[in-house]
């Protein structure tokens, strides 16, 4: 298959303006299910006489044009997995009619569709997933995002098995039919591309509520989940209502239909999907309450519900012209969900968490074999571009625009964007133009962020000339060549900067020696910037505060200076960053076997840790984060090469043991002083206290003492977070409290998502690969369900280095085998698993060899486009 290029975009010659779909899910055999479509076409290019409709794995039964049987067509089988059968229609006989109707009838494969794309069975439910190219598995169509059409959908199915029949928009009609069947008709007045089409059929528990918009319209809200799970939907409903309110308050955006529905399904490749008026969710991102979900998962539910809801405007009302523009809707919507979480919970913690995704994962993507700009130029499998680069770096790019022009101008830009493009399919250039025009700020140079891949490195050098009372501050940026792009240019980097004096006070209103103000936002536009700052005392310079630009900062600092910043800086994000930098020095000193340096670095870290412990009660949520010694995955992310994952894991263990010995008694005193958390509520204070309890207990019980505290935590718990934390502590610190695990497994025997969390914990702590493989024996395990497979393999790869990178090669071999197995039925899942092997380039040779062997093995097999694109780019 040939890759597609961004430059190859051509507008449509015809548009399908109106789409009527009539689905018949057969009650007896389930299949062949059929769909009859009636598509109203409009000619856009005068003189155009033929067009090609996309199709895959379909069987054409009937074709009519303007009511007459039509022979002027060609069905073409294209290479690739699945039977691509593009349908070319020749309409030259139509005598130049610019509007005409095409009727098509075809079968569609529902029951045996394991791709989780198109229309498929998720357990007992029928559901759809059309982004990005799933609609072609349903019927022949212009399956591309720039064909906007008004959809009307009729669904007919067995009433007993499928009591709910749902699609986008508003319900129009429903009724009973012969032979136990029934039907429902839905109409969505907003023109949309095929990727936003949705259909769901099945039996569900439903939670209903209402939201009154700011202009006083009543919107019915319905959330559907598997029967028996209805009581676990209240949190998601509160998230939805808060999201709707927040989008009105912060972005002045109101919901536009009379009904908003969300459905949870058990088989899904991603988190969720923003289909107009009918979001479909992976149940793991929707279903959960205090007894079945950790605080972290509830927070994720909140975020994903918000994210999909926010797409209603940024994605649905204004969509992408082509898939190369994916970051137009995803980068912007991630930015919006991050802001929602920041405004709802805690801005610093949200920033720390989203920066961790960038630093620990996206930076590796940007320097590895699949490096691509946020708006890619060349794509083989579109599924492979739902990446951290497109989503999270895309959001950082939006955030930089926000930083450069300010909140007020940004909101003006959003207004202008909607005024210009509502109901249209547009490009990233259109978005940036709206921001530039609304703010009056020229963003021409800034736009390089859309086409240049790789992470800029910024070197900060400073020198104080006491005699002339000048601080020389030199900033320099460089982006190294990446796999996909050799030549790089300077980018526009907004760098928030703080100056501290030796007493730890922030110094404001600084001027350069020629009298110009030194802004707290330094914008580095060229390769270098040299500032001469007038000051009578030396200053500590901290830049990229709040991670104002997605760059890697290099700044030579002594351990003492890092400890000083960690203890004194009046910015919590930078405190966190300084602690990470100091932790990294601890690792480096240990890894280079330099006992003197290691002792010095660790000594300073222990001091900082003591200071942090002393302040923990001021802000438990934040300090629980600050009190965690940097984990091996975050350390690995800082390496460009020669990473020894086993050695990193050893240092992690050693430092945690040292912390227990040095501060276990202080942790115990603090634990005993903690305020009562009180009856469960989901808020940042309570979640913070629960997290702090875990962090302290981990220290306290590090040497196997005080295990009764862990037993008490479990026994007295009124929530899932405390229970799984107790289980975790028991296993991590070998406390021998087997009775906790027994109770846990009995209590949650039927809770599949809870048992996924248990599997993840087990996979993280497993001692060898057989222990990991044994997890597939649990009664809930299903080798075809992405949630079950990922619950084991992701933690193995990210958090269990001892097993993943065991030098006998069995860890990486297992991942490769699973990638190959899943590639036979779900290439999207397989390609995600191949990702777990793509860190090979930074490993020390003995580990790199093991991973490359597995990638070469995969390359020798028959693979889907999705997996092949990844494997080949790795071996190129
Ligand atoms: N826009 C949604 C993308 C998505 C998806 C893409 C490929 C294959 C399966 C998928 N499920 C959902 C998700 C989002 O960003 O909101
Ligand atoms: Zn999205």
UniProtKB/TrEMBL annotation:
Domain of life, per UniProt, equals Bacteria
In its keyword annotation, does this UniProt entry include Transmembrane? no
> Keywords, A to Z?
Aminopeptidase, Hydrolase, Metal-binding, Metalloprotease, Protease, Zinc
Alphabetical list of InterPro entries matching this protein: Aminopeptidase_N-like_N, Aminopeptidase_N-like_N_sf, PepN_Ig-like_sf, Peptidase_M1, Peptidase_M1_dom, Peptidase_M1_pepN, Peptidase_M1_pepN_C, Peptidase_M1_pepN_C_sf
Specify the Peptidase M1 membrane alanine aminopeptidase domain's residue ranges: 235-446
GO biological processes = proteolysis
Do you know which CDD domains this protein is assigned to? Answer: M1_APN (cd09600)
Show the catalytic activity.
Answer: Release of an N-terminal amino acid, Xaa-|-Yaa- from a peptide, amide or arylamide. Xaa is preferably Ala, but may be most amino acids including Pro (slow action). When a terminal hydrophobic residue is followed by a prolyl residue, the two may be released as an intact Xaa-Pro dipeptide
Q: Where is the Peptidase M1 alanyl aminopeptidase C-terminal domain?
A: 560-875
For the keyword Acyltransferase, the answer is no
**What are the Peptidase M1 alanyl aminopeptidase Ig-like fold domain coordinates in residue numbering?**
454-555
May I ask which residue range the UniProt record assigns to the signal sequence? Answer: none
Any idea which GO molecular function terms this record carries?
alanyl aminopeptidase activity; metallopeptidase activity; zinc ion binding
Q: Which NCBIfam families match?
A: pepN_proteo
* The protein's name: Aminopeptidase N
- Identify the species of origin: Psittacicella melopsittaci
